[in-house]
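DATA SHEET
Item: assembly model
Revision: 1
Owner: S.N.
Input lines:
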Amino acid sequence: MSGTGGRNGPGGAGGSGAAHGDAGPVLLGVRHHGPGSARAVRAALERTDPCAVLIEGPPEADALVPLAGDPGMRPPVALLAHVRDAPGRSAFWPLAEFSPEWVALRWALERELPVRFIDLPAAHSLAMPEPEPGPEPGRQPESGAEGAPGDGPAPGAPGAALRTDPLGALARAAGYDDAEAWWEDVVEHRTAGGPGAADALAPFAAVAEAMAALRETYGDGGHPHDPVREAHMRLRLRAARREFGDRVAVVCGAWHVPALTRRTTVTADRRLLSGLPKVKTELTWVPWTHRRLSRHSGYGAGIASPGWYGHLFRAPDRPVERWLTRAAGLLREEDHAVSPAHVIEAVRLAEGLAAVRGRPLPGLAETMDAIRAVLGDGSDVPAALIHDRLVVGDVLGEVPDGAPAVPLHRDLTRTARGLRLKPEAAEREVELDLRKETDAGRSRLLHRLRLLGIPWGEPVRSRTTTGTFRETWRLRWEPELSVKVAEAGIWGTTVEAAATAKAAADAAAATALAEVTAVAESCLLAALPEALPQVMRVLADRAALDTDVGRLARALPALVRAVRYGDVRGTDAAALREVAGGLAERIFVGLPPACVGLAADAATEMRAHLDATHRAVTLLSRPETTEEPGTEKGGPETGIGKGSPETAEEPGAGQDDPEITEQTGAGQGSPETAEGAGTGQSTTASTPADRWAQTLRGVAERERVPGLLRGRAVRLLRDDGRLGDDGAERLMGRALSPAAPPADAAGWIEGFAGGGDGDGMVLVHDERLLALVDGWLTRVSPEAFTDVLPLLRRTFAAYGTGVRRALGAQIRRGPAALAPQAGPGRGADPDDAVPVPGFGSGLDRDRAAAVLPTLHLLLDPAPPADDPLGKAC
Amino acid sequence: MSADGWKTTEEAAEETAAQTPGGARREPRAQASKGTDGGAGGAVLRPHAEETFADELAALAAADDRPRPERWRLSPWAVAMYLLGGTLPDGTVVTPKYVGPRRIVEVAVTTLATDRALLLLGVPGTAKTWVSEHLAAAVSGDSTLLVQGTAGTPEEAIRYGWNYARLLADGPGREALVPSPVMRAMADGATARIEELTRIPADVQDTLITILSEKTLPIPELGEEVQAVRGFNLIATANDRDRGVNDLSSALRRRFNTVVLPLPGTPEAEVEIVSRRVGQLGRSLDLPPVPEGLDEIRRVVTVFRELRDGVTEDGRTKVKSPSGTLSTAEAISVVTNGLALAAHFGDGVLRPGDVAAGLLGAVVRDPAADRVVWQEYLETVVRERDGWKDFYRACREVTA
């Protein structure tokens, strides 16, 4: 056996410094996360039987080695190193069951052999500036070193950039796209054939030779830190040899093998290592998942098929047959009819494909093609299922309780201390004033924790105030929350980073549209701008595919609130606004058909959607609206052009503050704007508000829409001044005409005037409308009256005393005082100059002037102009 | 009973002999003879693949030193190269016959090499027939063993028919038998092709089960059977998104490896296909050529692709997909239609208004659901797009 150790490759590779007697250190250059490498490593270790194992990794982790043998430890796990005072600066070394490092680690632990990590200490690597990411030949075979998750470019974290790996370079030279396929073909499949255990080291010899050639060409491959790291490895190797003799095995990235055999002096290596920056670091084990190993999820280890690798590593023999059988089993569980005959044919096809492609045995690509063509009838659906569940897989690692605390916990403790929030078991309520820095910070922290599923605080409805700058929280720290923090550690190393990652994942996993909007809203509350784009993306996609207008309408208000909130906080809400606009458009298109033929309950629900959407659209179209009519942008002009020419009646309002004009245009109580908005009827309406008005008009005019909704639509239009002079009257007259069923008419009245004081005032102020209601009511037959009474009661009982009294007084004056006729009455006042229906013609200047002194005090300290009203008229 | 039976058979004899099996059989012969006297009588409109690319096939066969399955003209590797194109060591350039994922061709060829039947699926216009013809040409050197599937394809087209004159004169025997292309392929160890398999009635489809699993075709009338010799295989094509097709029974489906041919991968490729086809159709309809219409074609293709894929070309917005297929073939017909409108009722220039109505018809197949999908698409995607204002307006007009 020692003889085999002697003919180990590195000696031949480059001026062996280890050719000392018959057994030098066994250098096992591996491909990280390669199952082939892992198997080969195990065989080589069995063969050479070293007395110590050295592994590429941070030496600080030596103390954590025993945990790897703990029964509670189940891969995939990762070694996590982070700067003690800045958990955001961290690095991961993920280890899967099929990672050669993990195999070596477990092999040594089983035999109670010493294990040493020999890479540069994390204290240095985390302190060093990030090497410039750029085109780098020859990937630094960093054992899956990662950037900090989500936390932007963490300084000092060994590069997360995808580096070409050296075996990949060899594979490409051999005409392979996939390094693992190449390794399988040239190493795994070739050596598996022969029983020759004597060859256990042959692949490593060959790889070392190839690496020596590569390093001769590429030097350090553009990684300035590599010489330093390798110097450290050499020093650790020397120390190990002093301690354990020459029979030590080194498992490291193949790239480093030539460097470890290079003849250098201790002094030269020491010199390289002197003066390195240093930070205080801490290390721990954290659970990892297969999904994070795969390259789909941001900061994975860059292996696309961890499930497949795991299978290759575990399968004792016939990997292809076993794999396709597993795939068939999974498909059967999902109700695809897959028979053993299918599996047979799939295996044949995979083998045939391998032959056509010139590979010794089928690999993942061949088996996937076979699955698609045979098991899946050519469809992508089963193939996607297999990819998700088998090729990547849902394996979640576990770490024993004894592992040191995760950095997330530290970050939480630190942040909480900074905000003077103490974890207390007793329940207490705090009120936060978001205008204060500390309170805002507390709110953010609590919102983030809620996102992470750590319910330290629960928001409570405030008893004292409803202002948006106050929040009330009920705080209570329970011991199991610590466990939850540890669990949440998988999302990141700081509360912010973890919450960002969690929010994005939550949004992607959400099933209902409203859930996604809720996540979007909490992203804003928790101040996670980084998560927003991803959440928005999901939201837009969901909205596009959702066919239920109700769900869309439920989602819109939260989104628009988010837009407004984002505006207030000065964050870039453009993306949000775009999504909200898209959502609104979908509602506009889908709403009218969805209102048809609804039962009473559904109509009530839809009415709520109408109101919510209306408010949302009003909010949404308030700031700059640069939609269709071109690129003209600019405050006052947009304001007036969008609203209506008629608002020119109040010239003081709009000149320098578009917001006010907008408000008058879109808000309550300026029915004058009616005709101007009428232009919105052209085929290409310009603003969302215009198109919403068009939608409402469609609802109002549709016969098969329940009265409640038609009434509501008319009311909303009227309040926005989009119905013209007698539009509301005309529609009301139609809805209340004798031919309409009384119940429907009562519903119309409820929709139009129901809901409360504000909604009742319209009848007080517009006598013609009141006359219509009055006329209709007196016409209702006694039997029908009993039917509609509850509806009417519901409508009118909601009004406050004042409104009811005013209404009563008007009614008492009798029909003579009201409009002459119920019915499609035009001509309550033949004088068309009347701007507001129900009011006298012209302006009563004396009465209007009474308000001027007060207004003047409010707006402008200068003496009043001669006759501001005169200008206005 | 028996007299009656004879009588009906006699009547049927004339029809069948004239139509299906005999017809299918005569066709290649007729073309072959045309091919031989081509020098005298003028070139055929469209020669077979193995004739058109005879040089390439010969060069490939000469250069091909890999193992060939029995009765294959080329090795599987060379067949894949014939379809995908490449350059041979002797410098012969093999033109690509199929432009698309390499994976698909490899799976198809391997399927044939592993003795499994191949089912090519895809919406119209994805080169299913083209691929099957070239595969047969490269594998067996003969792409003419073809059965065209229709709703009226009889069992005789797949198994065998009778030459009733011979049957009456000589009695039942091999001479009176009219073999189908499939039967001949079995006997010769060649590749048979069935077009539009899912159009064939289910009971007729199922006659393939024995052929594919037992590899024999019994002839009970003669007490004989035809056993397939090595090299026999079958390529079927089917359109997987049309309605009203006869779906394959699972027993039959199990005998096939399925390869789905994708739609054109890039908008440019699809625009190219559409405009070329439209040009051809336009010539045959004597429509004036409309070069200015390229914008409109691009627009139609974009609309089709976006609605089909459920996502806009920039990948930023998802859209709902309507219930229709929206295949490239339909895009072609929309444009052709618009061209005819422009030529006969307009000023000869293809304008948005000319294609809008056709588009609406192609997209809105289900009046309720699809209309909402289409309107949503118009409002959320088309309206915002630069330079699409006319198009948007035209679509709004026809939709309203």
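QC remark: Chain B has a mean pLDDT of 81.
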